[in-house]
Amino acid sequence: MEVEIITRKDLLEFKRDLLQEIRALIQTNQPAKKWLRTRDVMEMLNISWSTLQRMRIRKAIPYKKLNNTYLYPKDQIEELLNSDQDEFLSAI
Length: 92
Known about the structure:
Layout: H1 8-29, E1 35-37, H2 38-45, H3 49-57, E2 64-66, E3 69-73, H4 74-82, H5 85-91
Antiparallel strand pairs: 1-3, 2-3
C-alpha cells in the first residue's frame, strides 16, 4: 500500500478549484433579476431611504408598488446609474 502525502499547496489548489465550480453552478442556475427592492437600489445608487422616497415622489425613478413593497426595474435603474451625472443629481 502506497502512502501519498497531501501538502498545504494541494489543499489550497483543491479549494480554489472547488470554489470555481460552485460559483459556476450558482451563476448558471440563477435567473436574472428583473426587479430590485428598495435596499438594493439604495446600495446601487449610494443614497438614503429618504432620498429614494423623494425621487419616487418627483417621479425621477421608475417603480411599481406591490402591496407595501416598492419594486424598481433593474435595467432602468442601471441606465440611471450610467446616465449623465448632472441628470442624476438633478433627479435627487
